[in-house]
Amino acid sequence: MKNKYSIFSLIKNAFSQHENWKQAWGNPEPKKEYEAVIVGGGGHGLATAYYLAKKHNMKNIAVLEKGWIGGGNTGRNTTIIRSNYLWDASAGLYDHALKIWENLSQELNYNIMFSQRGVMNLAHNLQDVRDLKRRTHANRLNGIDAVWLDTKQVKEFCPIINISQDIRYPVLGGTLQRRAGTARHDAVAWGYARGADAMGVDIIQNCEVKGIKRNGDQVEGLDTTKGFIKTKKIGVVAAGHSSVIANMAGLKLPLESKPLQALVSEPVKPIIDTVVMSNAVHAYVSQSDKGELVIGAGTDAYISYTQRGSHDVVEGTLKAILELYPIFSRMKMLRQWGGIVDICPDASPIISKTNIKGLYFNCGWGTGGFKATPGSGDLFAHTIANDEPHKLNAAFNLNRFVSGDLVDEHGAAAVAH
Amino acid sequence: MFVINCPYCGERDQSEFSCGGEAHILRPKQPTELSDDEWAEYLFMRKNIKGVQFERWNHAHGCRKWFNMVRDTSNDKIHAVYKMGEKPPVI
Fold first, then answer.
1. Which pTM does this prediction carry?
2. At residue B17, does pLDDT exceed 60?
3. Hey, where are the domains in chain B?
4. Per CB distance under 8 Å, which residues of B are interface residues toward A?
5. What is the secondary structure of A34-55 as a DSSP string?
6. Which of A18, A55, A92, A152 would you call most buried, defined as having the most Cβ atoms within 10 angstroms of its Cβ?
7. Rounded to the nearest 5°, which phi and psi values hold at A7?
């Protein structure tokens, strides 16, 4: 890899006031033809390109990004990583990703600031208690670390939580996955971009796909704002805009795109050293290394591509946060933003071939795609290279909506979708 | 967030309403005749348009009546509101 990062390169560059670092990835013009083209330069798309080059020896590939890499949902999420899903298929998928996360900084030679600070999911009513206990058992049967904590243990693990039983949604306990945590979201996109670029992948920014050319049921290429690009394999990883791309190929997907919001507070000294999620009140919070509280809110309940989100959704989340953490009552919120998430009817993703030859979709990650980034890229690369799914993503095919074999994580997942 | 002009109650905050998704998807007349593909199309497949979309809304915290709306999903601008059973406007 060119320009390997190490303590020595850091010292060497310190002597030239850090002005001679090489660009981490290039800015090429598109070639006329590629072996495969990935549409979408977020974490998932860049990871797909990285693994296509690394594990499947496909070097003549491009990633097309309409804006800048990592500027969509990769840069807008709350960076939570966990794998404590209920169903076997989901557990397999998300834990595959978590295992890659654990060694990703070393693999990419890029510090993605992966921090296994644990993720706690709180129970606020009797049904929550039953569901979360059941999920803990299911997790352990699948080899995923999970423990049930009673109210006192929750308080011990995160002392700022209000465990008064007189509040509207009292804490009745919770689950803890210690291997879960957070990572620096931008760094994930940048690390994969740098790794892919080093293996010859063209990362083409400011290049929007305008159409997909087909010859019968085989794809032939893409019309883009930088001209026509010929290719026999197109992998679409366009998150909220997946349906827009699908429509260009005359395909309908079982997706609805909705704004999902997050917000951060002013930076403060370390106060919460884990991630706490509350399904019932839809509030989750962690603290970034800069000291900001990172708060995730819910989705708007209607289709929209506005990347804003509604005020009442944020208000609801903050009410819940204040009841659970009265200590935050005087915090000021610094920034709020929205990203467009594509949600499947069963709240599970699609990593699949389509009935159009050479057209593959990786979409439907809804509100929880970031955690799966490395696994999603790895499995999607496998699917594209072999024209067959890997056994870990076989259940996440598009055909499940016809066969009825859904992976119904709706309500079963750790947080409401 | 936006203001919706309910055809029965007038202008109210969007938070009073719930969205029922894409409009004018007809319930199959002969459900027993449908193939699995046709069921999937009816139940799950959606246009999910970025742009002008026809959709159903319910005034859940008001009159509780259903109606149709034409909205641009790229900027949340509402072009028309019309009652159930009325012909969709040409936009």
1. 0.96
2. yes
3. 3-83
4. 1, 13-15, 18-19, 21, 36-37, 39-41, 43-50, 53, 55, 73-76
5. ESEEEE--SHHHHHHHHHHHHH
6. A92
7. -60, -30
